[in-house]
Specification:
By secondary structure, this protein is α+β, with helices and mostly antiparallel strands. It folds into 3 domains: 9-69, no CATH class; 81-308, no CATH class; 316-397, Trna Endonuclease, Chain: A, domain 1. 24% of the residues lie in helices and 25% in strands. The protein is built from 10 helices and 24 strands. The protein has helices at 24-34, 129-134, 139-149, 165-176, 186-189, 201-211, 259-268, 270-278, 318-328, 372-384, and strands at 9-12, 15-18, 39-40, 47-54, 57-62, 94-96, 103-105, 112-113, 120-121, 154-155, 179-181, 184-185, 190-191, 224-225, 227-235, 243-247, 255-257, 283-292, 298-308, 314-315, 334-336, 351-353, 361-366, 389-394. Strands 9, 13, 15, 16, 17, 18, 19 and 20 form an 8-stranded mixed sheet that branches. Strands 2-1-3-4-5 form a 5-stranded antiparallel sheet. Strands 10-21-22-23-24 form a 5-stranded mixed sheet, with helices on one face. It starts with 8 loop residues before the first strand and ends in a 10-residue tail after the last strand.
């Protein structure tokens, strides 16, 4: 049975607007200039939102970590963050500024570089689980948080062929504007390349130069500034020493990765690289700290990888890919759970179906290697959310169960 689409309603200044009201864009434009926040009226207490520019449109987006405050029927509703790797980070590595609504991030990597530029592959599994889970964000966890805050974990078949790199780039940059780090606003130190058009090559290069103007080479042995890059990997061609990392939409801006770092990358992200190579429509996404040497060469200092479907939904196994492929053709919204700093031997919700009736559904995939400790953790997660139905696929038992 097809479910009706719920229309959001907003209060902007003194006016109230439905999501399909023709005057909404004009009201959003005025509020955007005045830095006013729209309020979502889905629940008794109005919920602050923010305005994002995507292409030529102004869109109303939920504030960081506010999704759980929306009514379950509201399109801005987000499943409880305790069900994913985000839970242990809230209040520790991620803190919300009550005055501004900005998410203040504590990073487990440096944005400056001293001495030689030996690159490293970021740990895909934390070496110190307790410290990394709660106190600081790993490089991969920052990418996961950007993906989640940018609402790129959500999908419905209504969006088919409407989410290209332009939408992804805008979503990531808009999400970063709501985040702060010790080094400053994340939006000021994050570079996500825009869609490349050959006829606009010179203008794109000029905008890139402006965006990277904050990178400074070391003077007199001082530290170099680094920035964050998020982009889709096209290839890793061999270089005279090491490899180059070629990012799509950056045809004239490759980055160098030293040979030792390339070997570490292949070892630590073997699973992601295999999944990328096995799925012709998958995308490999890199997040890296990078700088520019005194010779003008762009280099990677630290790098992490995730693999995403053709719809840009992250996955970490063949089984997850199969489930996401089944859900991709359905009109009901699905929300992918992300691991952040959690290791692979810890359970988490793979996908949530928030619009399912009579209650939302949490979908779990239990790997064949799962033991008693994994099962205990899974049982605790399920017991903690009695308001949600559970769907469990134990891969050791055979094929995927029927979908809810």
């Amino acid at each position: 049975m097809r479910q009706a689409t719920v229309m959001r309603q907003f209060r902007i200044a003194e006016g109230t607007f439905n999501e399909d009201t023709p005057e909404l864009q004009s009201a959003l434009a005025q509020a955007y200039e005045r830095k006013q926040r729209p309020l979502c009226l889905c629940s008794e207490k109005p919920i602050a939102m923010y305005i994002a520019r995507v292409d030529r449109d102004l869109l109303v987006k939920r504030m960081p970590l506010s999704g759980r405050d929306h009514a379950p029927s509201c399109p801005s509703y987000e499943p409880p963050y305790e069900l994913s790797g985000l839970g242990p980070l809230i209040g520790n590595a991620i803190q919300i500024d009550a005055a501004t609504g900005a998410a203040v991030l504590k990073l487990d990597f440096s944005l400056t570089k001293r001495g030689s530029r030996t690159a490293s592959a970021a740990e895909s599994e934390p070496s110190d689980t307790v410290r990394n889970e709660t106190k600081k964000l790993s490089l991969r966890a920052v990418l996961h948080y950007l993906w989640e805050a940018g609402e790129l974990t959500e999908w419905t078949s209504l969006w088919a062929r409407k989410r290209g790199w332009g939408k992804v780039q805008a979503s990531l940059m808009n999400a970063a504007k709501q985040m702060e780090t010790r080094a400053g606003p994340l939006g000021d130190i994050l570079f996500v390349p825009e869609v490349f058009h050959a006829e606009d090559k010179a203008a794109i290069a000029a905008r890139r130069a402006t965006a990277l103007s904050g990178l400074q080479t070391a003077v007199g042995g001082g530290p170099r500034k680094l920035m964050l890059l998020v982009g889709e990997v096209k290839e890793f061609p061999e270089a005279r020493t090491g490899r180059k990392v070629v990012i799509r939409h950056l045809p004239d801006f490759s980055l160098t990765l030293e040979d030792a770092a390339w070997r570490r990358l292949g070892k630590r992200y073997e699973t992601e690289l295999e999944l990328w190579e096995a799925n012709a429509n998958a995308h490999l996404i890199a997040i890296a700290t990078f700088g520019i040497s005194s010779a003008g060469v762009s280099f990677i200092d630290e790098i992490a990888l995730i693999v995403v479907t053709e719809n840009w939904i992250p996955f970490e196994s063949v089984d997850e890919f199969r489930l996401l492929s089944r859900l991709a053709g359905m009109r009901r919204k699905s929300v992918k759970g992300l691991r952040f700093n959690l290791s692979r031997d810890q359970p988490l919700v793979c996908v949530t179906l928030p619009e399912q009736r009579p209650s939302p559904v949490a979908m779990y995939i239990v790997p064949a290697s799962a033991g008693e400790e994994y099962d205990r953790g899974l049982a605790e997660m399920i017991d903690a959310r009695p308001e949600m139905a559970s769907w469990i696929w134990r891969t050791a038992d055979g094929e995927m169960p029927p979908l809810p």
